[in-house]
Specification:
Blueprint (H helix, E strand, L loop, with lengths): L4 H18 L5 H8 L3 H29 L1 H21 L3 H29 L2 H31 L5 H4 L1 H15 L13 H24 L4 H23 L13 H18 L2 H11 L4 H7 L1 H17 L5 H19 L12 H24 L6 H34 L2 H10 L10 H33 L9 H14 L12
């Protein structure tokens, strides 16, 4: 291995930005109490970060090719650190959501440049080792996030889940400037600002519409206006991409069934596997009264199962078609969702464990294979675009999952609660019902809502898994795993936002 410095610097920032996707999950109840936040506020604490990450990833990656990847990476770390400080000092939910969105913008600059930077430093076997280590760090970040969030929340307080980023950011900037060489794309390409703006508007309007539907209904003027804006923005994005000399995402790729199948899988995967976990955390702490640390530990079976399956499956499933691993993995995620939909007023956290383990098994199959499947479905010159699209669709899927399943949960709880309690739920979430309802009524209503959300997630994964099995066919049936690995490595070197197939979790 030729020098561990660049790999260490890149992995440090990668770990930090991916931990921040999951670290907030366990801290949500404490945030709600401290900031007097409603359930929709908590949704935006998660979605503001994921949306900014998804919306800006491709555009920032293209800009980094021109401006310099190390320069953009370091700028992203600085923005991320400043936003983390703002999160830690936020006086109210609005300020926290705004700071989280800025944090996501910094994270997009970091994530879009990590693999191109590694590809410019390492070659041959060293590159394979570097990509494997980076993938392991990515998987570890998803596993550590809930537990670390619980420890910090129960210890110094929830604000420290953001403030702890400051010393890590200083170390990441220092190491990046010291040991990571600057690199640019060999051929210049323009920055598609119009594509970036229209895609961001589409993602934000769609997610806003779903979140508002949970508060005011699907047929309200606010909800319908947001959906209409999302449709218009998506149409504008498609027009811009057809006319752009260097599009962020070529619409013609979606005419390839294999690429379409990979994007369907990527969009459904993160939402179905992880979109219900924030509400599970609220149930564990608000309803069952568990501590943040114990609430985080409940989610460990999912992370452990995912890590083990990803590590072992890489050897045992060598040569198995991607449509079987991805499609089968999504079906397992779906079954895991249905197995979590078994709660009633008297159940404890243990009822969730079988479903969490199954979701972990499915995650371990899908996460390592989804990027490689997208790369295999497109020509070599589009490999970076395909890899960036996988990252974008996964983060967008998570944002939509949090929004959709939160709306499903609150709608089901309203049906199970008296009118006055239902209005209190819309204004303040489950915390607003403490002391106003008998304990058993609250437990039964929340369990019913969580069951319905888990069923919705399970159905999403099952439908997506079936579509992947039908659509995801190899573009070149005779393609070998060795040839695929070579293309993955080239994508890591040449293109913004490409993701290593070994990466697991978020």
């Amino acid at each position: 291995m030729r020098g561990w410095g660049p790999l260490t610097a890149v992995c440090l920032s990668t770990f930090m930005l991916l931990v921040d996707v999951t670290i907030c999950v366990v801290a949500l109840p404490d945030m709600a109490r401290a900031l007097h936040a409603s359930l929709s506020d908590l949704q935006w604490v998660l979605d503001g970060y994921a949306l900014a990450l998804a919306a800006l990833l491709l555009g920032v990656g293209a800009a980094a090719d021109i401006l310099g990847r190390r320069r953009v990476h370091v700028a992203g770390v600085v923005v991320f650190a400043a936003a983390s400080l703002a999160c830690g000092l936020a006086p109210g939910p609005g300020a926290l959501v705004a700071a989280r969105a800025v944090q996501g913008a910094g994270g997009a600059a970091m994530l879009a440049t990590t693999l191109p930077l590694l590809g410019s430093v390492y070659e041959g076997r060293d590159r394979s080792v570097a990509l494997g280590v980076w993938g392991a760090v990515s998987g570890a970040a998803a596993a550590v996030g809930p537990v670390l969030g619980g420890v910090l929340t129960q210890g110094p307080g929830w604000r420290w889940i953001f403030l702890v980023n400051l010393p890590v950011s200083v170390a990441a900037v220092w190491m990046s400037l010291r040991v990571v060489p600057e690199s640019r794309a060999p051929r210049g390409r323009g920055i598609d600002w119009a594509g970036t703006a229209t895609f961001a508007l589409f993602a934000a309007a769609l997610t806003y519409g779903v979140v508002r539907a949970g508060a005011v209904g699907w047929t309200s003027a606010h909800t319908l206006s947001a959906f209409a804006l999302a449709v218009v923005a998506l149409g504008c994005f498609a027009v811009v991409q057809r006319r752009a000399a260097h599009p962020l995402l070529d619409p013609a790729l979606f005419r390839r069934p294999a690429f379409l199948g990979a994007m369907v899988g990527a969009l459904a995967f993160n939402g179905a596997a992880f979109g219900v976990l924030p509400y599970t955390s609220i149930w564990l702490q608000t309803v069952l009264g568990m501590s943040p640390v114990r609430g985080g530990l409940v989610m460990v079976p999912l992370s452990v199962a995912s890590f083990v399956v990803a590590a072992v499956g890489g050897r045992l499933l060598h040569g198995v078609p991607a449509r079987l691993t991805i499609g089968g993995g999504l079906l397992l995620v779906g079954v895991g969702g249905f197995c979590q939909a078994v709660l009633d007023a008297g159940d404890s956290w243990a009822a969730l464990v079988p479903g969490l383990v199954l979701v972990g098994f499915g995650t371990g199959l899908v996460a390592p294979a989804i990027a490689g499947a997208a790369l295999a479905a497109v020509p070599q010159e589009r490999a970076g675009m395909a890899g960036g699209a996988v990252n974008t669709f996964r983060q967008l899927g998570y944002a939509l999952g949090v929004a959709v399943y939160g709306t499903v949960l609150t709608a089901r709880m309203r049906e199970a609660l008296p009118d006055a309690a239902a209005r209190a739920l819309a204004g303040g979430g489950a915390r607003a019902l403490r002391g106003e309802l008998p304990e058993r009524v609250l437990r039964a209503a929340f369990a019913s809502g969580l069951d319905t959300a888990a069923q919705a997630a399970g159905a999403t994964a099952v439908v997506a898994g079936a579509l992947v099995l039908v659509l995801l066919r190899s573009r070149r049936p005779g393609r070998t795993v060795r040839a695929q690995a070579a293309q993955d490595g080239q994508a890591a070197q040449d293109a913004p936002g490409a993701q290593d197939p070994a990466a697991a979790g978020f």
